[in-house]
C-alpha cells in the first residue's frame, strides 16, 4: 500500500504506507520521550514542571509574595507555554505541592491539595499557590544568560530549555514517567548525602560507585519507612542504573493493660495510599487470611497511626508483622530506572556517578555563562563610567558643546574620542548629577567594577578555582538542608536486610485437632476433635469406613494412589464433619481407573516404604514426596497391570522388612538392603512364580513381627523367632507361621 506525501511546491509524491506510518510514529515517540515523559538530568524536571515554575516566576509568585489562584497559574501555562488540557497541568501543579509525593515540594500550596489517603485536591479555582525556596533555587540566575531559551509553541515568547538548577533536584525529588518504549523511575534522596557525594566527586572524578553509595546510602522517601535492601543490591542498582529497593512500614509495639499489646504503624511505604492499605488489610481479615490479626483501626490525624490488634497476646509481634509484610503493601518495592535526557537531549540509562557528574557539569556551565554575562555588564558599565569621568574633567567644554553645537552628539564624539554609548549617556545626564559628590561616587564605582572585572576574568581562566566556587555553592546547599534541620533530616531509616522468617503453617492456621475419615468409595471429611469411638460416624448406603486417622488443621496429608503418584492435601482444605464429605478424587487429579492405597499424615523428616504389586519397591523421604499441585508427584514408576500395592511409614528404630506374597509365603530381610530413592521402580523385594506382592511391614527385629488375628483385629500375635524366614532380598520366602491371616495382610 502507498500513501500521498505533499512536497514543497504542492507536488504530491507517492510513498509507502509503512514508511509514512513509521516516520509519524517515530516522531510521536520522540515527542513523548523528549517533551513529556523523561526528565532532564540537569534540573530533574519534565517540560510541564519546568513551564509551571517559569510561569509562576513571571507572575512574581516568590516565596515571600502573596498566593495566587491555581487557576491563574494553569491559565498562564496553557496560554503561553503548554497547550494541553488544564486538568493534566493542574495535576502536575498539585503533585509539586504535595509533601507526601515530593521530598522537597517546589510549590507552596494553600488549600486542599489532597492527602496520603488518596483523596483528590480541590478544584483549581479554590486552591492557591506560590513558589518555594527550593523552586527559587532552581530558577536562580535564569535572567543572567545561564541557560538557553527557545521559542514557545506559538512563537510569541521564549521559554527556558533547562533551568539553572542550583539544587540537585533529580536525585533529591526523584522522577517517574512512562514514554513510548521506555520509562524512568528515580526515588528521592537526602540532600545532605547528595551534596557529600557531589563534593567527593569534585575531588575524585573517578570515584567508585561503592564509595558514592557509602556517602549516599539509599533513597530517602518523604513518607519515611525503613529501607531494608541489602547493600550489595544497592551498589549493583546504582552501578547499572536499574534495580529496585525494598521499603517496609515503620512500626512499634505498644503495651496495654493485662499483658497484651498493639502494633502501631507510624510510617508507610512511599506511594502507598493509606486508605487502600487499610481496606486491603480489612478485606484479608474478612476472608480469614490473616488469622494472627484480630482487628485494624485508623487513628491517624496529621500523622499516620494505624493500629493492629493481634488475635492473641501469645502471638509474636515479629511473626505477625512478617505475615503482614508478605500479604500487604506494608512492604513494597520501588523501582530504580535512571533513564533520563542528557545535555544533548538523548535518552540514556545512567549510573549514579554519571547522574552526579551531569549535574556538576551543568553547574560548571551555568557558572561560566553567568560569569561571562556579569563580565559583559561590567564592561558596558565601565564604558559609561569612563564617559562620565571625561565629562567631569571637561565639564565647561561639554556644556558649551551641548549649548552651541547643532549636532552635540557628533561633536562630543569628535572632541573627546567617545563611543556612541558614552555620548548618549552624557547627553542623558541630569543636571543634578554634575555635583562633585557624584563624581566621587562614579570614581568609587569605577574602581570597584575594575577590580571585579579583573577577578571575573581570572575566574574564567582558572578552572580549578571554578570548581572551588561550585564546591562552596554545594556546601551552602548542604548547610541549608542539613540533617539537623527538620526539612533535611533523613526520614527513611536504613535497616539491615531482614532474615527470611518462615511463618509456619501453625501460625497462619489455627491448630485444632480433627479426625479424618475416608470411606471405601473415597469420600473424605474432617470431624472436630480426636475421636476414638467412630460408631456414630455415618456413611452412604453400601459404603463403609476405610481410613481413620488423627490429625490437626495445620497438617498435610499424603494420598498414595495405585498409579504410583503421591498427592498432597491440606487438612484445613477438607470438608467438615457434617454430611458425608466430598470425593477425594475431586480434590486431587486422580484418574477414575485408579484408587487410593494409603492415607498418611505427613511427618517432616519421615521415610516411607513404597512397593508395587509386582514385588518391587524402595525407601523414599516424605519431604521429597510433597507435591505443590493437584497433579501430585510421581514416585513409583508403574504401568499396565502393575500398581502401587503398599505404603508403610518406617519407624526410626526399624531395621527389618517383612513381605508376604499372594502365594502365602513370608520373607524377612534387612532394611539396609533397600535403596533410598525419590522416584523409580525400585528393587525386587520378593520373587514370585505366580501372583505378586500382597503386603509388607517394617519393624525392629528384636521386638518381633506382629500381625492381627481374626477379622475383628482385636487380637495381635507377635513372632520373635524369625530365623526360618530370614533371607536375602528377592528370595522366594517360606510359608508363614500357623495362624497367619489367609488374607495375607499384617493388619
In terms of topology, how is this protein built?
Elements: E1 2-6, E2 12-16, H1 17-37, H2 47-58, E3 68-69, H3 70-80, H4 86-97, E4 107-110, E5 128-131, H5 133-139, E6 149-151, E7 158-160, H6 169-173, E8 175-178, E9 183-186, H7 191-203, H8 209-215, E10 226-227, H9 231-240, E11 242-248, E12 250-255, E13 261-267, H10 274-286, E14 293-298, E15 306-310, H11 317-327, E16 331-337, E17 339-341, E18 347-349, H12 352-393, H13 395-404, H14 408-416, H15 420-427, H16 436-461, H17 463-480, E19 493-494, H18 505-508, E20 513-519, E21 523-528, E22 545-552, E23 556-561, E24 565-570, E25 582-583, H19 584-587, E26 596-601, E27 607-612, E28 616-621, E29 633-634, E30 644-649, E31 656-661, E32 666-670, E33 683-684, E34 693-699, E35 705-709, E36 715-719
Parallel strand pairs: 10-19
Antiparallel strand pairs: 1-2, 3-5, 4-5, 6-7, 8-9, 10-11, 11-16, 12-13, 13-15, 14-15, 17-18, 20-21, 20-22, 21-25, 23-24, 23-26, 24-29, 27-28, 27-30, 28-33, 31-32, 31-34, 35-36
Amino acid at each position: 500500500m502507498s500513501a500521498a506525501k505533499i512536497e514543497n511546491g504542492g507536488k504530491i509524491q507517492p510513498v509507502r504506507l509503512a514508511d509514512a506510518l513509521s516516520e509519524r510514529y517515530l516522531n510521536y515517540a520522540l515527542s513523548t520521550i523528549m517533551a513529556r515523559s523523561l526528565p532532564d538530568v540537569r534540573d530533574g524536571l519534565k517540560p510541564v514542571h519546568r513551564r509551571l515554575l517559569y510561569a509562576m516566576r513571571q507572575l512574581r509568585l516568590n516565596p515571600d509574595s502573596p498566593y495566587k489562584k491555581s487557576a491563574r497559574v494553569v491559565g498562564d501555562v496553557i496560554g503561553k507555554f503548554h497547550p494541553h488540557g488544564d486538568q493534566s497541568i493542574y495535576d502536575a501543579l498539585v503533585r509539586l505541592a504535595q509533601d507526601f509525593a515530593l521530598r522537597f515540594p517546589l510549590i507552596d500550596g494553600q488549600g486542599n491539595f489532597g492527602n496520603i489517603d488518596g483523596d483528590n485536591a480541590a478544584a483549581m479555582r479554590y486552591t492557591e499557590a506560590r513558589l518555594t525556596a527550593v523552586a527559587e533555587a532552581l530558577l536562580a540566575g535564569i535572567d543572567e544568560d545561564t541557560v538557553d531559551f527557545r521559542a514557545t509553541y506559538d512563537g510569541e515568547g521564549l521559554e527556558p530549555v533547562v533551568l539553572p538548577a542550583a539544587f540537585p533536584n533529580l536525585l533529591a525529588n526523584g522522577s517517574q514517567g512512562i514514554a513510548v518504549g521506555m520509562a524512568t523511575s528515580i526515588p528521592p534522596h537526602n540532600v545532605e548525602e547528595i551534596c557529600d557525594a557531589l563534593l567527593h566527586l569534585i575531588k575524585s572524578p573517578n570515584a567508585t560507585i561503592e564509595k558514592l553509595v557509602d556517602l549516599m546510602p539509599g533513597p530517602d522517601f518523604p513518607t519515611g519507612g525503613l529501607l531494608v535492601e541489602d547493600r550489595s543490591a544497592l551498589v549493583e542498582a546504582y552501578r547499572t542504573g536499574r534495580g529496585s529497593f525494598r521499603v517496609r512500614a515503620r512500626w512499634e509495639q505498644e503495651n496495654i493493660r493485662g499483658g497484651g499489646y498493639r502494633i502501631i504503624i507510624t510510617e508507610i511505604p512511599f506511594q502507598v495510599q493509606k486508605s487502600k492499605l487499610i481496606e486491603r488489610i480489612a478485606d484479608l481479615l474478612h476472608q480469614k487470611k490473616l488469622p494472627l490479626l484480630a482487628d485494624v483501626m485508623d487513628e491517624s490525624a496529621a500523622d499516620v497511626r494505624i493500629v493492629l490488634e493481634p488475635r492473641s497476646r501469645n502471638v509474636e509481634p515479629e511473626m505477625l508483622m512478617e505475615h503482614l509484610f508478605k500479604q500487604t503493601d506494608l512492604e513494597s518495592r520501588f523501582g530504580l530506572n535512571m533513564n533520563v535526557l542528557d545535555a544533548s537531549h538523548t535518552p540514556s540509562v545512567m549510573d549514579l556517578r554519571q547522574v552526579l557528574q551531569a549535574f556538576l557539569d551543568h553547574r560548571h556551565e551555568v557558572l561560566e555563562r553567568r560569569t561571562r554575562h556579569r563580565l559583559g555588564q561590567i564592561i558596558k558599565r565601565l564604558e559609561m563610567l569612563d564617559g562620565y569621568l571625561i565629562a567631569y574633567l571637561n565639564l565647561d567644554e561639554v556644556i558649551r558643546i551641548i549649548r552651541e553645537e547643532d549636532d552635540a552628539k557628533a561633536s562630543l564624539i569628535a572632541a573627546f574620542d567617545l563611543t556612541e554609548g558614552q555620548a548618549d549617556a552624557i547627553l542623558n545626564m541630569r543636571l543634578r548629577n554634575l555635583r562633585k559628590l557624584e563624581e566621587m561616587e562614579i570614581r568609587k564605582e569605577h574602581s570597584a567594577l575594575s577590580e571585579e572585572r579583573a577577578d571575573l576574568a581570572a575566574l574564567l581562566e582558572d578552572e580549578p578555582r571554578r570548581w572551588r566556587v561550585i564546591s562552596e555553592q554545594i556546601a551552602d546547599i548542604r548547610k541549608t538542608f542539613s540533617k539537623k534541620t527538620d526539612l533535611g533530616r533523613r526520614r527513611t531509616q536504613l535497616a539491615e536486610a531482614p532474615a527470611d522468617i518462615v511463618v509456619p503453617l501453625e501460625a497462619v492456621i489455627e491448630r485444632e485437632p480433627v479426625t479424618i475419615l475416608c470411606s471405601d468409595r473415597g469420600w473424605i471429611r474432617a470431624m472436630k476433635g480426636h475421636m476414638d469411638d467412630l460408631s456414630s460416624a455415618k456413611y452412604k448406603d453400601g459404603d463403609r469406613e476405610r481410613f481413620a486417622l488423627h490429625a490437626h488443621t495445620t497438617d498435610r496429608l499424603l494420598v498414595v494412589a495405585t498409579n504410583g503418584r503421591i498427592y498432597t492435601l491440606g487438612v484445613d482444605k477438607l470438608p467438615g464433619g457434617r454430611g458425608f464429605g466430598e470425593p477425594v478424587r475431586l480434590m486431587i487429579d486422580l484418574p477414575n481407573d485408579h484408587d487410593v492405597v494409603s492415607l498418611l499424615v505427613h511427618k517432616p523428616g519421615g521415610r516411607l516404604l513404597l512397593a508395587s504389586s509386582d514385588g518391587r519397591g524402595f525407601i523414599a523421604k516424605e519431604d521429597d514426596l510433597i507435591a505443590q499441585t493437584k497433579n501430585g508427584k510421581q514416585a513409583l514408576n508403574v504401568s499396565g497391570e502393575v500398581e502401587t500395592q503398599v505404603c508403610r511409614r518406617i519407624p526410626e528404630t526399624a531395621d527389618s522388612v517383612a513381605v508376604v506374597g499372594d502365594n502365602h509365603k513370608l520373607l524377612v530381610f534387612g532394611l539396609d538392603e533397600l535403596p533410598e530413592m525419590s522416584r523409580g521402580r525400585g528393587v525386587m523385594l520378593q520373587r514370585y512364580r505366580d501372583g505378586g506382592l500382597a503386603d509388607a511391614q517394617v519393624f525392629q527385629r528384636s521386638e518381633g513381627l506382629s500381625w492381627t488375628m481374626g477379622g475383628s483385629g482385636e487380637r495381635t500375635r507377635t513372632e520373635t523367632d524369625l530365623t526360618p524366614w530370614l533371607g536375602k532380598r528377592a528370595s522366594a520366602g517360606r510359608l508363614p507361621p500357623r495362624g497367619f491371616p489367609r488374607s495375607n495382610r499384617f493388619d
